[in-house]
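Q: Second attempt. The first request was missing the SMILES, so the protein and zinc ion are both included now.
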Amino acid sequence: MWERENEYYSGILMNPFHFSTRRLVSQIYCGLKPASSKKQRICFEMARPSSNMVDFREVFAKAKHIAIITGAGVSAESGVPTFRGAGGYWRKWQAQELATPEAFARNPSRVWEFYHYRRELMMSKHPNPAHISIAECETRLSKQGRSVVVITQNIDELHRKAGTKHLLEIHGSLFKTRCTSCGNVTENYKSPICPALAGKGAPGPEAKDAGIPVEDLPRCEDCSGLLRPHVVWFGETLDSDILTAVEKELEICDLCLVVGTSSLVYPAAMFAPQVSARGVPVAEFNMQSTPATDKFSFHFAGPCGTTLPPALARHETEIIS
Ligand SMILES: [Zn+2]
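A: Got both inputs this time. The predicted holo structure:
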């Protein structure tokens, strides 16, 4: 079963045999050619993904089922912090230290303050052109009998805010809670989520107080059990129903976009290679390619808020009634 911690081992997720075979073939091919630096260069360029937007648009125009896998890069352009990497701290912790079942068991007040802060922060954030172009594309294509599904690791609901309907949130949502007693999952957009969290959760130095008593943290309306954020924490498995839904979408898609994350990094690394192995084109939209993205058909470098809107705009062959 896939666990959240697998993102640390993303390199392993790629099929090394496929890669090395392709690279080997490419090198042998180049090696057999008469020594000509120009020919060699062309040979290597052919091994790389295309960044030709006209070619991509032709593929896009024919696609009936488009799967769009999105990662943190899409939200970063809306100013949503990940609390990971250099400088990514809330108080003295990074997300990996707070987004765990162990941290919640040890100090539910601190973890709730962290999530309360993130929920409140999201109230001031808006979808960017990448989110909006995806949502508009779904609406437009649905009138043509074509489908778009968004598979995201983001928990901020910016895709939903932008108007995306067909959405698979593999890591859950900041705006859902789950009861630790009865398991009930509910949407929750309250601000603050409970009176005791009002004015709490500020980043910076650790608060000096003893924290919020557990009985004053968010509680279940049905059984009064302690609620937790309905998000997949590090070390937890992904929801099997959502994974099944993702698998179905990946089996029927005839074009796959990887946006704001690398195809080599979780979660796209879980999904994109299997799509690619079926011969379905995969297009990456992110800041930089990696040496191994030659497995995929297209790569468009740059902020996806800039690269995605022209890619998903109405194609001249689209007939809109
Ligand atoms: Zn309950």
